[in-house]
Each structure stands twice: as structure tokens, then as C-alpha cells.
Amino acid sequence: MTSSRLPNGGSEIDRSKPLSFVFDDVEYPAFEGDTLASALLANAVNGGFRSPILGRPRGVMTSGTSEPNAFVEVSAPWFDPIVPATMAKAVDGLRSRSLPGVARLPESPPPERALGHHHAHLDVLVVGGGPAGIRAARRATEEGKRVLLVDEHHWAIRSQVGDVEVLTSAAVTGLYDDGFAVVHVREGGASRLCHVRAREIVLAPGAHERPIAFAGNDRPGVMLAGAAADYLDRFGVRPGERAVIFTTNDSSRAVAAALAAAGADIAAVLDVRDGAAVAETLGEDRVAGVRAADGRTLECDLLCVSGGWNPVIQLWRSVGGTVRYDATLACFLPDEGPPWLSVVGSAAGDGIEPSAAFWFVEGAEYSAHFVDLQRDQTVADVAGAVQRGLRNVEHVKRATYIGTAVDQGRTSGALAAGIVDHLLGTDRGAQGPSNPRPPWEPIPFRVLAGPYGGDLFDPVRTTPIHGWHIEHRAVFENVGQWKRPWYFPAEPGESLEDAVLRECAAARTGVAMMDASTLGKIEVVGADAAVFLDRMYTNAMSTLGVGRIRYGLMLGQDGMAFDDGVAMRLAEDGYLVTTTTGGAARVLDRFEEWLQTEWPDLRVYCTSVTEQWATIAVVGPLTREVLRAAGTDVDISNEAFPFMTWRDGHVAGLPARLARVSFSGELAVEVNVAGTDGLRAWKALFDAGASFGIMPYGTEAMHVLRAEKGFVIVGQDTDGTQTPDDLGMSWIVNTKKGDFIGRRSLHRRDTTRADRKHLVGLLPEEPGSLIAEGAQLVEAAEADAAPPVATIGHVTSSYRSAVLDRTFALALLTGGRSRVGETVVARSVTHDPIPATVTEPVFHDPEGTRRDG
Amino acid sequence: MLLIPCPWCGQRDENEFRYGGQAGIAYPADPDALTDEEWADFLFMRDNPKGWWTERWYHVQGCRRWFDLERNTATNETRRTTPEGES
Questions:
Q1: Do B75 and A597 touch (CB under 8 A)?
Q2: For residue A7, pLDDT beyond 50
Q3: Other CB atoms within 10 A of residue B29 CB
Q4: In whole angstroms, what is the distance from residue A140 CA to residue A132 CA?
Q5: Which of A320, A592, A596 sits opposite B75 (nearest CB)?
Q6: Is A36 helix (H, G, I), strand (E, B) or coil?
């Protein structure tokens, strides 16, 4: 037995409140206020941990967040995947097991905990509850400011802070511009995230003691000197019976005195300023002694190390604060920083003992001189990286992973920088320690997610007809935030393939209907609406007559397809334009951007009306029969209501705007009604269509129907690199009307190349073979060639067609329009090579005879 | 996270805004008069100074107005641009 609880003392523990906890299947007693680390030491558990890569025995080395060895997983009464034993509060019934510095995912999801996010808007946030932080917080509170003090430890500091609002067990995981801090608060089993915005942030995080690299400096029983003092003072635990002190500074004198006062023997104080040093530790699974540099062997069970103190400057640096090297203190101090940020206390260098700049003990070799214990990286590893030509600590960090572990380089960062400087022969402090990155304290993903999981992850948008779709077995797909029926199984279990063939056949030979309410709809109104739309679309919208509809394509300034839809001219000064379901927000944003930033002189107002309208597409040769059966006062004959026009009237007694548009090539009427009338209109049309065999259809059938006609879907058949000409849509580019977005890019050298990828059709030679969407196209001669094989295009859409009674596909193929009739081969990891004939992209009714019924 | 002074709404968190890149890139009066290289320069090439410059922001989750903001790219300090005609 080496470490033990003293009969008296311990400022943090309450000896009247005993408890017990389990560590690695053994039950131990502890007191209220203990950390797991202090309780383990009190029970003479001096090792018990392993290093992650080399599997070396390790023990508690620190008393706080810089701990690189003693990590545990907590499984009861709550779940914590990884926490330093030095930071985990001991509670009755807690179960924990040692981790080799790396967490494991639980086999089943941990039980839910009440997790929340909240926001605090403050005058002053003080980070750190030591004397300097408490002073700063009290002063600011007395000045009438709204102050919050956060401290990462659970230690009771409330009694010392007066009226200041305090959060303990609250770690700042990241500091960001303009006084924004993210604070992770552990409250027993629950964690929450506090987003703080403060006019002023005062950093008082203190200083971390620095270890020294020497042979076997990772052996259990090696402890930072200040930590040994902490265990004595705060927890009444004496971490050893016979100690050697190895130091570069005077802070360890008090530690030696405290250990002696607690009854420990001090075998020696080895001070590098006297030329003394520890050459190596002796012992097996824990320290049994040390060999000093002068050759002496000293028996001990505790080796207290102090290589000086590093002000905790990581948060300071994370928002651009600079540091300067202080040769007297042998550490980096905060220098210039943002105006809202200040540093007080030992983090600013106050009270830090002058130290020799001493990083490692010279030896014959350095493979057990540990620099980053949690990464099992040694002085030899740093030397290897420098030898390979890495001269910057940031590069050494990436080569060795030093400073990238949970402890974020608290004990290793400054040490590694000092060693690099030494190896390069540059001045001490020539390079600061590598930059830390958030999270400065580890934080579980579920705390970051907070309540925003499951149904709260993202808003779900549904149409007014959604409930009917559910009642009719719709299988849904997500389109942006929208839930859209994908297909409607006729009976439970009908496959997607069967349902889609059935739905498509109904649209082509009878009548079918779909809920198109999700299409984006924007009203563009104002005296200059026509001028504006002429600049936004490739074709002219100003020449469109009131009552008429025109398909429109929008390009990016780079000339590539951006979104498409139709424009209805409602009046001389008003249009309603539709967008793709997923593109509504970005089209409205783009309209507003150009109106505000480039053409503020145009009198145009844009309003999103997507949810104000419900849109029902009735599609198929029997469309007019269904509308008549539902009852309408609009003359829906082809003469009175031709293709690409709209009429206001009623359907089934409901005010409706009818539009002759078709995304399938069949006769079709879009019935637009007020959103609140959507369900009634849908039911009326469905009932009216019953005797005609009307079928609801979903997005998959819609995709097949439009692909049979060669209509592209922007975002599926395009990927932001297709011009209208690439898509075979030069007809929609009006070059006479004046400038429009993207126009100039259409006559760049690159966009006029003949060998660009063109939209083409593909017919697999075997009519039953379905090519995978995304399959790569290769020359026929390379059907079975071993990779690498040059690809000449890819498949963007691929379906089984009811009307064609075979499979077909759309593809982007290099120089595709000049290859019609040739054979290419589709290769995919999901199927054998499929030879296919290149065709025009329109497979069905190329003359367009069916749209009028 | 920046605290951005929206001219209409006051100081708001950066995540209410969308970034719009360098300000003051005027759309060419006659794009057809530009060579391919000049057009590409307009479309794609932007300054990348260390220090103060003027950039565009869009208060997409607020008033939905675009505005110009000066920001020091080295320190992330921000300040309102002075509207024309004022001092």
C-alpha cells in the first residue's frame, strides 16, 4: 500500500457522506466531493490504466483536465463515453471502467437524458473559478454588470463568490468571435449546452504544470507535483509514502513540505538548476525508485515532477490572441488579443515561479521519454519527424499526432515545441505550441445535438393532402424538407416497380392524379416584373400574353442550368412562377439578391406563395372527363383552353385556377386551389375519377413519365456543369431579347466546344436490363477492360417504362449528339456491363400529339 | 461566431446571415464586350487581402436585406460601411 487517505483534511470532501462506486468491477468507498481519481488513490489504486497504443501501465498523473492517462467510461447511473477520472465526480452507485484513452461506442444507445440547449446574454463571462476569476467576477458584479462565472471542476466555490452567478462542472469547449462561448455543463447525469454571448470575456483558467521527458516518465507513480499537493489539500489523500521531487522551479518546495507534513518521506529533491535530474524510473507496473543523472539510485513510490507552468492560453489563442515567450518563466504568455477578451491570474503569468527552460533529460536513446502520453509519442518520435524535414510544430503535430488526443496537448504542446526548438537549434520559444482546436474539452455528440434529434432534427413540410396519402398507403420520399408520396401500393406489399408501372400506365392510357403542391411558387409583381423576368430566364417572359404560360430555364452566371419551372402571366404587371420543389428558397433568394443589389431601380416585389396554393395535376387522356364529372365552370375544350394557358373558375364548387401544363406529355390540367381547399379538391377529383379508374401516382412515376419525354430534372440530370445546349435545349435561349443571367457564359470557348457532354437517351440492348443511375459509360471496346478505363459519360436517370415495355435511360455522354445509333457500355459496381444504344433523349410521342388529348 | 451589425435589425448572430463575398463587384455594362478572360475575371476572381475590406452579407433569417460590411480579415473585427452621402 502506497497512497492512502489521511485521517484528516481535504477541503473538497465531506467525510460525513460516505458513498461507494465501482471501478473495473471492484467496489470502493469514497466521500462526497471526491473525484474518481482521488477516491482511487485513497484506496491505494495507483495504476489501473493502460496506454492506448503501446499498452504500457499508466496511473493518475494530474488532478484536472490535463490528465493524459486515467480515462474511464461511466455506465451507471448515467452513461459517459469517456471522461478523465480526475474530472469525474464520485457519486454513490457509480459504475466505471478504465479506458486506454480511447472511447468505445456502447452496444445499445445510452438511456435518454434530459438534454437542453440554452442561451445566455451577458455583460461579462468569467472562465475559471480560482482566486483571480472570483475577483474579476465579484468586481464586475459590484459594478452592476450581468456576470456569469463558469468553472470546469465540481469544486464548491459558491461560498466564495458572493452574488455572482456560477456554473460549476461547466467547461468552455470553444471560444469564438465577438464574445461567443460554448459551455458544456454536466449536472449529475444530465448535460446541457449553454451558448453564451458576452460583451466581455475574462479568462482566468490558471496554469497547467508541465511534465519533463525522461526514460520511463509514464510509469504509474509519476505525478505532477502540483497534483500531489491537490490530492493532499483538497481530498486528504497522500499519493505516496516516499517521494522524489524532480523540478525546474521553486513551486515544488511547498509540495515537498506538504508531503513531509503529511508523513511522507522525501527521498530527494532533484532540481535541474543544481545540475540534478532523474535519468529514468525503476520498477515494473509502478515506480519503485529512480536512477538519478549522477548515477544514484533512490527508492521511492512517488515521483513528483514539475517542468514549470504553462499559462492556459489555448482559448486565448483560438480567437486570434497572440503569445510571447517569457524566458524567465519559461512559458508562453498572452500578448495581443481581441478587445473583448482579457486574461487574469496565472494564465496571464501572475504568480508563476521562474523556471529553468528544461524539456527533456539527455539519454542514450529516447524511446521511453514520453511527450504525449495519450498518443504514446516520445522524444524519439519528435526527433524522427524533425529528421524527416518537418520544422514547424504544426507539421510535427500532424506527423506524430502529438496534441491531438482528448487532452488537446495540455501536457504535451509546450513540451513538443520546446523539443523541436532544441532539435533545430533555434531560440527557446521560437515557435509557440501548436494551435489547439475546439472542442477544448471533449463533448458528446448527443450534447451537441441536444433536443434537436428525431422529429426535431429538421422541419417536416407536408401538403394539405398529406393525410389522404397516408390513408392510401403512400410510401413517402424526402424532397428537401417535404414529404412527397413516392408511390401508392395498390395493396400492401406491392413493389415499387409494379406500382410505378401501374401508375404510369394509368397516366398514359386512362387518367391519374398527383399532388404537386410542393412545387415552389413565387408571385412576381410590379411595373417592371416583365423586364425583371426577362433578365432572370433565358427566354422572353415579357412577350407572354396575360392568360398564357411559358416554360422557363434559369442559369447561373456561369451559364449552367440552375432551376426551371413555368411562368404564368397573371396581369400586365404580375406573374406567378414555379420552381423545382427543392429549389424554391434559392430561386426566391436569387430574385431578391439581384433586385436589391444590382437593379434597385426595378419596381418588382416577390412573394413566396408555395403554401398558399394546393396543386393537383390531373393527367391522362381522360382528364377532361374527370374534370367534367367533378364539375367545372371553365370551358375546358382544347379550343377554349389550349395548351400552356390558364383559366380562373371553379372545380367541384371551389375557386380554382386551371393550368394546361404537362410534365408527362399527356393531356393534363393542373388544378390550383387555396391550400385550405386542397384536400376537398383532391377528394372531389378522386371521387369524380373513380368511374374512369383514376389512380394517384407519386414522384417515381412522375420521374418515369417525364424521362420518357426527355424532360430533364434540374439536379438529377444536371449537376451544375450543363449549359442549355448540353441539354439539347438551345431552343429556350433567346439571344435577341437582351442580356440575361448567364448569357455571356454561353459563348465562352469552353461552353461552345463540340465535345462537351450532351444529354442523350440510352436503350439497353437487352430490354429487361436496368442500368444503375450513376453508372459510368465507357466505349464498347472497353466493356470488360480492367480499370483504369476512360469514362465518356454517366447515366443520370434510368427506369422501366410501361409504355415502351422496356428499360431506358438518360445520360450525359461526351459528344453524345453525334453518337446517336452507336453502342456504349454502362459499367457499375452493382451490375455487369450493360451495352446500350445511344438515342435521342425523347422516347415517347416525339411529335407531341398527346398533350391536347 | 461573428456578431454582425445588420443596418435594419441591429447586432445579430452570424448564423442568421449568409455570406456574399467581396462587395462592389459591378455587373459589366456590356458583357459581350468582354473577352473570355475578362468575363472569367468578373465571375470568379476576388481580392484576398489581409486586413480591412468590404464584403456583402444577407440577413437571410431576419429582414432578408443585403448590405455591405467592413471586416478585418486578420482580426474579424467588423464595422458598418458609411452610406454614400453621409460621413
A1: no
A2: yes
A3: 8
A4: 12
A5: A320
A6: helix
ipTM, two decimals, is 0.95
Q: How far, in Å, CA of A449 to CA of A96, rounded?
A: 24
- Stretch A647-668: mean pLDDT: 97
**Other beta carbons within 10 Å of A619:** 31
The single-letter code of the amino acid at A501 is L
Residue A557 CB coordination number (10 Å):
17
Give the pLDDT of residue A114: 61
Contact B43 A597 (CB under 8 A): no
Cell numbers found for residue A177: 468571435
**What pLDDT, on the 0 to 100 scale, is given for residue A158?**
67
- Asked if residue B84 has pLDDT above 60, the reply is no
Residues of A in contact with B56 (CB under 8 A): 597
pTM of the entire structure?
Answer: 0.88
A·B CB contacts under 8 A: 52
Closest residue to A338, CB basis, from B1, B14, B75: B75
Do the beta carbons of residue A792 and residue A777 sit within 8 Å? yes
Query: B60 contacts in A (CB within 8 Å)?
Result: 589
- pLDDT, average across residues A95-110: 86
SS3 for B4-35 is: EEECCCEEEEHHHCEEEEECCCCCCCCHHHCC
pLDDT tens per residue across span A255-284: 999 999 999 999 999 999 999 999 999 999
Question: How confident is the model over A502-560, as pLDDT tens digits?
Answer: 999 999 999 999 999 999 999 999 999 999 999 999 999 999 999 999 999 999 999 99
Element (H, E) at A157: none
**CA gap A722, A756 in Å, rounded:** 9
Q: Which helix (H) or strand (E) holds A779?
A: strand A776-779
Query: Which of A316, A318, A744, A747 should we substitute to test contact with B (largest number of B Cβ atoms within 10 Å)?
Result: A744
Q: Using the beta-carbon criterion (under 8 Å), do B3 and A179 form an inter-chain contact? A: yes
Q: Do B43 and A596 touch (CB under 8 A)?
A: no
Residues of B in contact with A177 (CB under 8 A): 1-3, 14, 76
With contacts defined as CB-CB under 8 Å, which chain A residues touch B81? none
**Chain B: residue whose CA lies nearest to A176:** B1
State the smallest CA–CA distance between residue A744 and chain B in angstroms: 6
A66-74 average pLDDT score:
95
CB pair distance less than 8 Å for B77 and A176: no
